[in-house]
Write a structure and sequence with these properties.
alpha/beta, OB fold (Dihydrolipoamide Acetyltransferase, E2P), five-stranded mixed beta barrel, globular
Length: 220
Amino acid sequence: MLKKMFRVPVYLFLLALAASCTIVHHDESKNKNSEKVTFYFDSADFDAVKFVEENWDSRIVPEIKEKAVPLDELLDMIRSNEEAAVSEYGIKKEVTSPYSFIVKGKYPVKELNRSSAVGLLYMDLDDLGGGSCVLQVGPVFKLSTIRDSLSFINFGDFVNQIEFANVSREINFYVRDNIATVVGESVPEESTVSFYGAFSMDKDGKVVVTPVILEIEAGD
């Protein structure tokens, strides 16, 4: 009898609790085809898009242009004395991250490969693995090379990892929407590419440059 007396109040309590809850249905259509992901832990005070737009012409491009080393000269130096090349030109902010290098160049175009979303423009220049150096031309850009090569963007300056990651994402979006647009679905024969950008040291010796300045000159 005593057990039955306790069952009723508990049952009523659970009904009241359920009534006070609101069920929110997830609408997948709202996020479908959206390129930007909103994280629940983002800081409302930080706008990564605005950060990149405000710093692109005033800080990002000037620093890249000031520190850029001719790519072919850097590769020759790495082949002959990697330790010296890393010591003089390598940029490493985290112990576990690879070295980044800020580079520039003007080289003949070998091929434009758009077989995947990560469009690659092959240059007539041997990379560290004996293949060709490539420029990322999108629309998908991998890595956080530009962010990690800039002296004024450091993890400790941001509230959390999400903000830091958002900066890299928006830099890549900016390159996609404003820089890589000079490269269409094809490139004229005997074209030349001029660029400023950065790449990260790859364990396989691949050189994949993300550009901040990019120009294509058609052949005669």
